[in-house]
Design brief:
4-stranded antiparallel sheet, about 40% helix, 2 domains, Four Helix Bundle (Hemerythrin (Met), subunit A), 7-stranded mixed sheet, Rossmann fold, alpha/beta, single chain
Amino acid sequence: MVINSAAIRWHGDFLELLDQRALPAETLWLPVRNSQEAAQAIRDMVVRGAPAIGITAAYGLALEAALQESNASLDNLADAIATLAASRPTAVNLFWALERLQTTGQSLQGAELADTLLRDAEAIHREDIAANHALGEFGAALLPDSATVYTHCNTGALATGGHGTALGIIRTAWQQKRLQGVYAGETRPWLQGSRLTSWELSNDGIPVTLVADSTAGQLMAQGKIQAVIVGADRITANGDTANKIGTYNLAVLARHHGIPFIVAAPVSTLDPALPDGSHIVIEERDGNEVRQIQGKTVAPSDVPVYNPAFDVTPGELITAIVTERGVIQAPNTDKVLAHLRGQ
């Protein structure tokens, strides 16, 4: 089966990933044929965004099983699973996808295991696209008419199987003529907002204004923002949410200004095994990502850098979490767990 989306192309026997490091200047597609190449692509930010990372990991494991052919077994795939799991520590969708494939392939071997894992990876990809469209509908209904929203990082078709999470809500709201425009924060140090979000929205004809991250408070004080919509890489049982660094700042600003703060994520991003955000492992990345901008040095080469990739927003600052199942208003442990049970 061939499945093509904005950032992930599955050709039935190999994977192609849009190299998001090159956007918007170049459109480069990189082939992935085994688990090592999939893990490297995740680690190096060729692919990013929690749902897209999970999809890529699923395909990477399935490709590895296919390479093993008659020798394929979960025991023989243990090294591949460990390599993929170590590629990025914060995005729970990565571990969810790997655990799902291991459950699906339990007690299977050889060609049967390889075929089963490939079918399940394809299913994860298709399901994520459908989930994004569903949560887009739920989230758009939360916005007032003619709203202007603020978003952070990139949560669109590039970060998911297709359509997007926070940008999925924005796309759906625009289609429903409920949206007036979008302010996109640049999102240092990788500039996902400027390089990716502004590119996606501009291509869709959705009015977007790019701003420096430090502009958000001024926009809110001027009454120019009616909602903040962000994605998530992991949501704990009580609603605490790990997302791209700078998200917590936005939540505090939004609370001060009385602006709804909305988190959009598929159910696979909810992690009931962790009671609260203090248990989330936050990835710390190379200091040169801050000392440099696209290879150009902008700080002393030896200055110490603290470079966490994510921060944690307390659930009490979140107005609503939107998934493909619906909306969790004012999230807490009881509400998140009930949502997971389908209640």
